[in-house]
Design brief:
Elements lengths: L5 E5 L3 H12 L3 E6 L2 H11 L4 E4 L6 H10 L4 E3 L8 H11 L2 E4 L5 H17 L6 E8 L9 H13 L5 E4 L8 E8 L5 E8 L4 E8 L3 H13 L5 E3 L1 H5 L2
Parallel strand pairs: 1-2, 1-3, 3-4, 4-5, 5-11, 6-8, 7-8
Antiparallel strand pairs: 6-9, 9-10
Helix pairs in contact: 1-7, 3-4, 5-6
């Protein structure tokens, strides 16, 4: 029988509310919701008793929220993107303190399969010099970071495989031979679409993932919260899905 969790939700925006809805539908309990500084102060005692905290806030808030969870000895599942420059320090602190962090640029099962396909295709295309890779992503207008964390993850995996590419560039009018073009678009009502294209003079190869709703992200976050129960260390969707 699936274990029912006592969950803390940090951030009560669109994703936080979706996590709350999905968790309650599946019999989990919401121990506390934290969406501002006053709630941090008043809810620390309740937060300590939660099985895990699920964090979806903003890039400038996520690192401090994660550290607060470490100090309260609570596993934290972070779905906020745009703070990757702080990740090495946070991972080191997590291990030094014997705490638990599960982070992912995208919690959707489908997107993580898409990541695997992207790595495989990039490996195949590494010797195909006639093909030029390109990434495009589209999200709703409220998304705070650009490009998305998912697009950055796709780009880094392509850079690791394709000889001659050194960096990715965002919305650049012109792209140098050693640069990978990434486009970010913000359109009202779009949950998330990511496209990877390899273009040559004679044809094009395209992979696309379209998220129809936020439910897939909420489901993945709850699976991650259940996965980290009783574990210590740093984990990602590769661990959860055994990829």
């Amino acid at each position: 029988m699936e274990r029912k969790l006592d969950l803390a939700i940090i951030g009560h925006g669109k994703m936080g509310r979706e996590v709350e809805r999905f968790a309650l539908e599946h019999g989990h309990r919401i121990a506390v919701i934290i969406d501002n500084e006053e709630q941090w102060k008043s809810a620390a005692g309740v937060l300590k008793r939660a099985d895990a905290a699920i964090e979806f806030t903003s890039p400038n808030q996520a690192p401090s929220n994660i550290f607060r969870c470490f100090e309260l000895n609570i596993p934290v599942v972070c779905g906020t993107t745009g703070w990757s420059e702080a990740l090495p320090e946070i991972e080191n602190r997590c291990l030094e303190m014997g705490q638990t962090l599960f982070h992912a640029p995208n919690f959707s099962i489908g997107v993580n399969i898409f990541f695997e396909l992207n790595r495989k295709l990039a490996s195949i295309m590494s010797g195909m010099n006639d093909y030029r890779p390109h990434i495009s992503e589209t999200h709703h207008k409220e998304k705070l970071d650009a490009p998305s964390g998912t697009a950055v993850a796709l780009a880094l995996d392509i850079l690791a495989e394709i000889n001659g590419l050194r960096r990715w560039v965002l919305n650049a009018p012109e792209v140098r031979p050693d640069e990978l073009s990434v486009e970010a678009h913000r359109i009202e009502g779009v949950t998330g679409t990511h496209t990877v294209t390899y273009q040559s003079s004679i044809d094009a190869i395209e992979m696309k993932h379209i998220a129809h709703s936020r439910q897939g992200f909420a489901e993945g976050a709850l699976l991650a919260a259940a996965y980290v129960a009783g574990k210590r260390g740093v984990f990602t969707m590769k661990d959860l899905l055994n990829l």
